[in-house]
Amino acid sequence: MRTPTPRAATVTAAPTAPELLGTDLYEEAVGYAAARSTHGRDHAERQVGECLRYLYLVSRHPDRLGGLFLPVEQEIDEIWHFLILQTREYRQLCEERLPGAHFIHHRSITYAGYRDDHGVERTRERSIEEALRWIPLYTAAFGPFDEDALPHWTMVRFLHEEMGMSLAQISALGPPDPAPPVPAPRAPVLGPPEPA
């Protein structure tokens, strides 16, 4: 695996969580997140925002991100579950408000059970490469990672806390290798990161 290369960030404006969900559903989602946490409303708003950023990226880049392991923390996935249960609004979000205009399916699977479309088991190197695909796409859409985003993105937190990289260094990462296109959009899968 090649080492990711730094790159210059170019940010294109993406809609905010309230713009994507509408005021009522946004407030419901924030209330749901706040009720499940002890961190307060600001933290809940950021959780909802990062969930929407995740969905925005999956929608915008299904060829690069479809079928990959969920790179965000469990709390973000729980917010996604909440949104899915609001079936009419979730369908409108996917098909009318997100850039890909297609329904984003969800399927939970354990790390051990994950195989690609060709039945190939996940390797640690492949998991790292897939997780690193998110970073340049995130920074291109939303700007550099900051302290508020850090707790919600598993690989970013690992690079910062375990590898000692600054948020500026992480945000400057480019893709590790040209990623081969994924054959067809699939539901992102949820599983814990592979143990070190």
Explained architecture:
The chain is mostly helical and 196 residues long. The protein has helices at residues 17-21, 23-35, 41-60, 62-65, 74-85, 87-97, 124-142, 154-161, 167-171; strands at 107-108, 189-190. The longest helix is centred in the N-terminal third of the chain and has 20 residues, at 41-60. The chain is globular.
What's the structural blueprint in terms of helices and strands?
Elements: H1 17-21, H2 23-35, H3 41-60, H4 62-65, H5 74-85, H6 87-97, E1 107-108, H7 124-142, H8 154-161, H9 167-171, E2 189-190
Parallel strand pairs: 1-2
Q: What is the ordering of alpha helices and beta strands?
A: HHHHHHEHHHE
Radius of gyration: 16 Å
Low-confidence stretches: 1-11
Strand content: under 5%
Overall geometry comes to globular
Average per-residue pLDDT, rounded, comes to 82
Helix content: 40-55%
Please give the largest β-sheet.
2 strands, parallel
Labels describing this entry:
196 residues; mainly alpha; two-stranded parallel sheet; 2 strands; disordered N terminus
Task: Please sum up the structure shown.
This protein is 49% helix and 2% strand. With 196 residues, the protein is mostly helical.
